Amino acid sequence: MTGAAKRIGLEVLGWTLLVLGVAAIFLPGPGLLGIFAGLALLSQQYDWAERRVEPVRLRAMLGAAESVETWPRIVASCLGAIVLAACGVLWIIKPPAPDWWPVADTWWLPGGIWTGVTQVASAVIAVGLIIYSYRRFHGHPEKADELRSDIKARGRKTEDRPVGADT
Fold first, then answer.
1. Which residues lie below 8 Å from residue 44, measured CB to CB, with a gap of 6+?
2. Can you tell me the distance from the alpha carbon of 125 to that of 4, in angstroms, rounded to the nearest whole number?
3. Distance CA 167, CA 160 (A)
4. Whether residue 28 has pLDDT greater than 90
5. Model confidence, pTM
6. What whole-number distance in Å separates Cα of residue 98 and Cα of residue 79?
């Protein structure tokens, strides 16, 4: 693969991951993970992306730490992943529309099998992230505090920069 082809491929992948990450903030899926991965790839080509990788990484890690601070949060996250996987399986099986369905049958479980596949994949990713977060952060509140202080320190550095300074 030539250097130009590799650069274009990484750039296309970076933009795709960034857009999918933003969409996953509102849809089921690991949004911050997608945004971080996209920015990490784009940071090889763009200074603006390089400046944003670390803040997004810190926010994602803080979200991971806070998600396993208490047992109700862990249980809610696991239940959310199970519901997401169950919905995905429902989409894959695609049973006929029930009698109570008020609109046309074509609106019953729209999107087809690939909607279900992406839901199940998102649930698997979510379970993996829950396990990772639990092993890394559960029972270690000092790690979350360290992330919060890193975020505050980066915020102070940004405030000290003159307006319009991109260095």
1. 10, 14
2. 32
3. 12
4. no
5. 0.72
6. 25
